Amino acid sequence: MKCPCCKKEMEKGLMQSSRDLFWAAQPKQYWMPAQEENGDVDVSILRLTGSGAQAYLCRNCKQLVMGYTE
Question: Which string of DSSP letters, residue by residue, matches the chain?
């Protein structure tokens, strides 16, 4: 995949966490799970060893590109 910013080739990998990964419009004060009723989007694939989501990394301009499934 080409970086949308610098057009160099990106590295395919995973964003990983011991907890769920989710997008939220506003930061949470404390760790809370994704709240879909508030517009949060869960982007993680749940596994017994933690959560992860496919992501592409550009080391040149320090960008990450991730997708998610619903």
Answer: -B-TTT-PBPEEEEEEESS--EE-SS--SS-----GGGT-EE-PEEETTEEEEEEEEETTTTEEEE----
